[in-house]
Amino acid sequence: MSGFNNSVNLKKELCMGCINCIKRCPTQAIRVRDGKAFIIKEFCIDCGECIRICPHHAKEATYDSPDIMKRFEYTVALPAPSLYGQFNNLEDINIVLTALKKMGFDDVYEVSSAAEIVSELTRAYVANNKDKWPIISTACPTVVRLIKIRFPNLIDHLLPIYAPVDLAAINARKQAMDKTGLSSEKIGIIFISPCPAKVTAVKSPIGIEKSEIDGVLAMKEVYTILLPYMKESMNNVEDIGKSGRIGIGWGSSGGEAGALLVDNYLAADGIDNVIRVLDDLEDQKFEQLEFIELNACSGGCVGGVLTVENPYAAKVKLKRLRKYLPVSCTHYDENINGDTYWTEEVLYEPVFKIGSNMHDSIMKMARVEELCDRFPGLDCGSCGAPTCKALAEDIVRGVAKEEDCIHILKDYIHKLSGELSRLDGKR
Fold it and tell me: Mapping DSSP to helix (H, G, I), strand (E, B) and coil, where does residue 232 land?
């Protein structure tokens, strides 16, 4: 397995051992054992659904504290475009950007600005690689991770271009070094994220060797800090913004695909819908599509679990904010953007396999089928696994036993009770 670092963790002291999370996890990465849930790290794609569904708040995302800014002599904020959709009655994104500087950042580089560059590069890539149609967006790290571990036949369809946040980090660092004369180590590039998947993408990037991002702050924490500074900024707003409709549109579902200026695209959001699209795509049910945009969160990035606003309300706010902006304000410049394409090959990671080789896998799958025939097929979750098949696979892997199934246990107890009664009758 690769050195994958998850950003969704369990707080055991809050876990009540309910099965809400195991039934909602799209990759069946959660089990409940001894009254507590635990996450199978290699199965997890950091979609955040368990955080969203847990009634006891026992799941949490890992991210940095604003104190990380103190580690550097010069800091640059990378606000995701979804940040602008969190505020009521916002008419100028410069109010938010100015507030970020008042918060303590020395400079701001909009991720939406880099998104316009990525849109330009994507248009060229799609036009020049018709043999790879449909091209699948790689802006959502959860989707990329999902394809890497579950849909190996679709890896070649991934768009091998830096995600906007990674390109923004590269450009922000270069500009900061040129502006200040400081070395790279003294400059902190801090991303303001709407979801835990972006945190994971910094720690365990896919397609690139190393992320240029030094820290990730949760949008919900930055939101509360920014509010008073935004009020202060109303009368002294700096003209910082450098993105238009295309860049800000990336904050919600359909924005990336719409920026390609073509009609033959598909945009889906919500992890269940994403999986359905990938299943159909693998079965070759789509024809004549050039591009597919997939967002694990409902509504797109505005629906991330680290946001504060209702995703559909935030989507409306972004639409209103974009209304009078120019189409695009940032364009590709080779002198600034030397790194735009992935440098690392993306390989299939068979985390769900249950055998060490083909013969072993066939033998173990036969055992799984045998166990499934013995189980009731109710998928009740009482065993701590999401389905009867998942329990059977756990048993074959050696991490569970048949008696974990309450129905098997009941039959076993009934049989044992009968045997004890028979023995007692012989006395």
Answer: helix
Residue 197 placed within a domain: yes
pLDDT at 4: 66
Structural domain of 23: 1-61
Q: What is the pLDDT of residue 414?
A: 73
Which of 297, 322, 347 terminates a domain? The answer is 322
What are the residue ranges in the chain where pLDDT is below 70? 1-4, 334-338, 424-427
- Tell me, yes or no, whether 18 lies in a domain: yes
- How many structural domains compose the chain? 3
Helices marked H in 153-195 — which ranges?
Answer: 164-180
Q: How far apart are the C-alpha atoms of 225 and 100, rounded to whole Å?
A: 9
In SS3 terms, 381-393 reads as CCCCCCCHHHHHH
- How does the average pLDDT of the chain come out, rounded? 93
> Taking the complete model, does pTM exceed 0.70, yes or no?
yes
Clarify whether residues 169 and 299 are in a common domain: yes
Q: Give yes or no for a cis peptide into 134 (omega within 30° of 0).
A: yes
Q: Would you say 105 and 77 are in contact if contact means Cβ atoms under 8 Å apart?
A: yes
Element holding 10 (H helix, E strand) = strand 8-10
Q: Is residue 111 part of a domain?
A: yes
Across 102-129, b (16+ Cβ under 10 Å) vs e yields bbebbbbbbbbbbbbbbbbbbeebbeee
- Whether 346 is in a domain gets the answer no
Q: Are 278 and 146 in contact (CB under 8 A)?
A: yes
Q: What are phi and psi of 72, to 5 degrees?
A: -120, 150
The predicted pLDDT at position 140 comes to 97
Q: Where are the beta strands (DSSP E) in 68-186?
A: 74-79, 107-108, 135-136
Nearest to 271 by CA among 53, 111, 84, 78: 53
* pLDDT value, residue 1: 42
79 and 190, same structural domain?
yes
